[in-house]
Design brief:
The complex is a heterodimer of chains A (about 500) and B (about 325). Chain A is mostly helical. Chain A has 20 helices and 2 strands. Chain B folds into 2 domains: about 1-90; about 130-320, no CATH class. The chains are: A mainly alpha (about 500), B mainly alpha (about 325).
Chain lengths: ~500, ~325
């Protein structure tokens, strides 16, 4: 029994199953919803299986085709990949349950195959150990994400999708150019082998510049965030949740991996970390101020994503002196933001469905009329603001601690300001949710599953605050942050 | 390098730059597309000069041929009523303001180009890459053309995902638009006859490219592109498939490629323990099966992309009204 669990190729099935599901949904649209829900729950079970395997055997490695790197492509999963797969599965379930009632008719027929292919792309990306294979998963992810944004069908959505497509393609091309340079220079595209073979050279700098710029564009770090607010705000609600919670994190995950494995040890201390930290700080301030200024709820949440992405980059300058605690902070921020932001977008979608609009000033006592949704928004807001007890609190606290230890008072001030601004825009929404609007509007009933999906994800973001010890011990499997070695 | 090849290469490089610039700067979109197609053809020549005939074939078939056709189809949808030569980019209202900002990307591109140029010059002129490993394992890969061996065996997993990307692209187009299946009158006897004559030849060429891919330049992508070109030609000549074939049958053909890949992946996983690990004795047959399925799917997907919308959706709407 145990052997079946520890030897079963969970990781491979994690990729093949959603691909198969996507094709089934494409072939038989009548059963798309059932197939989609089944596949998403099955993927969650597979992640549990993979977790079991990694607990027992250590890191997961699968040489596709039996060749092994450098000739073939390797799949690889350590604690960090596992956590990303787990959060994808968890948020995926919430989004699927929400979408099952959100999308109707023609939209549902198109949504399910696109979402399952996107899920396959995310799983493949988190499992990849090969920089060219990662490029292919980016293509898969980008096309699916763009098509999902365009699903809204509105004029703004189509414009935003086009802009998103161009930004994603530009990012992919820059990344691919870096891959070509690294392959030419070191004769492999496997991350572990590149880490062994790479040495400081102009190639490394050029590859870092190209891949870094491409990935920052995809991650929407200030000032490369221009495509994000329109795309995330005009997409259908479950898609907004997907993009903000998972897709943006995927390119950040690759950036983190490449930095930890290849670039960090080579160019660490040369100012790249400081630049990333500076951009992160600018993103926090700019995104938060913009969020505060918005009058539409979904745009406010989208700008909040711009700000929260900034926090992830504050860790780069802090790692040099404080080591692992800054990376733990990043892990925590990624996970809690995924849960909280998905919940927040879903809550906004419920309000949009309820009142037919998302004008913040006309929310009109939704707390009484839609208590579950208002509760979901408030709980997600707690995590976004970084108040205890929540996943966001742990992440921001660890980051703050790292900044204090290193005496980076500038970053401390930015983090506190970011928290205050976040409180500002969350309470702005909640304030309107409690008060009566000047004009009352017609309202429509919101399906219960949509309310519960939002609430449960928000509760998960809070519960994450109590799971610091297991989560942080999980992420250290396979030593993704290289604690053993001393960084310059 | 002889003087002649040196002159040829310089002319080729300069023409590429000039065509790229003209295609970007041309306000007439029709002209721009023609320039883009010419650029693609010269680019294919450049790949030949770089001793990469597989890339050259793909560039000529997909980069120049089908992309050109897709761009033309898109242009026709932009302004269906106007003749092509009337369609130009509308003049900017505040040209001066736009112009004053154009130096910024220009400077950025110049910087990137300079940096890349420096790096490329600092590279070792020849890098073996993985060619020795590929050559060492070629005998058991099931293909004697190293490109095919890499695409279908060593890195078959990438190709599996790429084929799904192609299906996804079509799905994206279908989510935006529906296509009319009304049979169009043939635009003229010349095109009609040409389509009738050329289609069988295209199919034959596609089959040849598919077969020859095992040991010479060619393979599923090139063969699929030629097959797609045959489809485009038929669509141009006014041919439309029967509406009854547009629901499940078309979709089954479209997923043939990715589905075959997934099935082979699962079977190899069950039998050998690793995804897409072929038994060396059966590798050749497996690669041929995968390539054939991929060729059919790629060809039909490209033709469907040219059709520019979901043909089923249109049907359904018609039934409702």
């Amino acid at each position: 029994m145990g052997a079946v669990f520890t030897e079963f190729p969970w990781g491979v099935i994690l990729i093949l199953l959603p691909v198969t599901g996507g094709m089934l949904c494409f072939l038989w649209p009548q059963i798309a919803k059932i197939t989609g829900l089944f596949i998403v729950f099955a993927v969650a079970l597979l992640v549990v299986g993979l977790a079991w395997q990694i607990f027992d055997n250590g890191v997961y490695r699968h040489a596709v085709g039996g060749w092994g790197a450098p000739l073939g492509v390797d799949l690889y999963a350590d604690g960090l990949s596992l956590l990303m797969l787990a959060i994808t599965a968890l948020v995926g379930i919430g989004i699927s349950v929400y979408s099952a009632t959100y999308f109707k008719h023609e939209q549902a027929v198109l949504f399910w195959p696109l979402w399952l292919f996107l899920l396959a792309a995310l799983n493949a990306l988190f499992l990849s150990a090969d920089i060219f294979n990662i490029y292919v998963t980016f293509e898969l992810m980008g096309l699916a994400a763009v098509a999902l944004v365009a699903l809204a069908g509105s004029r703004e959505a189509l414009g935003a999708a086009m802009r998103y497509l161009l930004a994603a393609l530009l990012g992919s091309l820059a990344y691919l150019l870096g891959v070509a340079l690294l392959y030419h220079g070191f004769g492999t595209v496997d991350i572990a082998l590149l880490a062994e073979r790479a040495e400081p050279s102009p190639i490394i700098w050029a590859a870092l510049g190209l891949m870094g710029a491409g990935l920052l564009l995809k991650t929407a770090l200030f000032p490369l965030h221009f495509w994000l607010p329109p795309a995330h705000a005009s997409a259908p609600t479950p898609v907004s949740a997907l993009l903000s919670a998972l897709v943006v994190k995927a390119s950040f995950y690759i950036l983190l991996r490449l930095w930890l494995e290849i670039f960090g040890p080579l160019v660490g201390g040369a100012g790249v970390e400081q630049l990333l930290g500076l951009l992160g700080a600018a993103a926090i301030l700019w995104g938060s101020v913009q969020a505060l200024r918005q009058t539409r709820l979904k745009l406010l949440i989208a700008y909040s994503t711009v700000a929260q992405v900034g926090y992830l980059f504050l860790a780069f300058p802090l790692v040099a002196a404080t080591g692992v605690s800054a990376w733990s902070a990043v892990t925590y921020l990624v996970l809690s933001h995924a849960l909280a932001k998905a919940a927040m977008f879903m809550a906004a979608g419920n309000l949009l469905c309820f009142g037919g609009h998302d004008r913040i000033a006309d929310l009109d006592r939704v707390v009484q009329r839609l208590p579950l949704t208002a509760g979901a928004f408030a709980l997600a807001g707690v995590s976004i603001m970084g108040l205890p007890p929540s996943g966001g609190f742990i992440g921001k606290w660890l980051l703050l601690e790292a900044a204090l230890m290193q005496g980076r008072w500038d970053l401390v001030v930015v983090m506190i300001l970011g928290g205050l601004l976040a409180a500002g825009y969350i309470f702005k929404v909640l304030g309107y949710a409690f008060t009566q609007a000047d004009v009352s509007h017609e309202s429509k009933a919101v399906p219960a599953s949509m309310e519960w999906a939002a609430l449960l994800l928000a509760v998960a973001a809070i519960l994450l605050g109590f799971l610091a010890v297991p989560v942080l011990s999980l992420v250290s499997i396979g030593d993704p942050f290289g604690i053993g070695e001393v960084r310059p | 390098m002889t003087l002649l090849t040196w002159v040829f290469d310089s002319l080729l490089g300069l023409s590429l730059l000039w065509l790229a610039w003209r295609a970007l700067a041309c306000p007439d979109l029709f002209k721009a597309i023609v320039l883009f197609v010419a650029f693609g053809l010269l680019m294919a020549l450049a790949w030949v000069r770089l001793a990469a005939p597989d890339v050259a074939l793909a560039e000529a078939a997909i980069g120049a041929g089908l992309t050109g056709a897709l761009l033309m189809a898109a242009l026709a949808k932009l302004h269906p009523t106007e003749a092509h030569d009337d369609f130009t980019v509308p003049p900017e209202k505040n040209v001066t303001k736009v112009w004053s900002w154009q130096w910024l990307p220009a400077v950025a591109i110049l910087l990137v180009t300079t940096g890349l140029g420096y790096v490329v010059l600092s590279l070792p002129p020849y890098a073996a890459g993985l060619s020795t490993e590929v050559a060492a394992n070629l005998a058991i890969s099931g293909a004697s053309n190293p490109v095919t061996a890499v695409l279908l065996n060593f890195r078959g997993y990438d190709t599996l995902l790429e084929i799904v990307v192609l299906l996804l692209a079509l799905l994206g187009v279908w989510s935006l638009n529906s296509a009319s299946l009304d049979r169009k009158a043939a635009p003229g006897i010349v095109l009609d006859t040409l389509a009738r004559l050329l289609t069988p030849i295209f199919i034959l060429v596609a089959a040849y490219l598919l077969w020859v891919g095992a040991h010479a330049p060619g393979g599923a992508f090139q063969a699929g592109a030629v097959l797609g070109a045959a489809g485009v030609l038929l669509l141009l000549a006014g041919w439309r498939p029967r509406a009854g074939l547009m629901a499940l049958p078309l979709r089954l053909v479209l997923v043939t490629g990715p589905a075959t890949f997934v099935i082979v992946a699962v079977l190899t996983l069950l039998m050998k323990g690793q995804m897409l690990e072929y038994p060396p004795t059966q590798a050749g047959v497996l690669i041929l099966i995968l390539e054939t399925a991929a060729t059919v799917s790629i060809g039909v997907t490209l033709a469907a992309l040219f059709l520019g919308g979901d043909p089923r959706k249109n049907n359904r709407n018609k039934n409702q009204t």
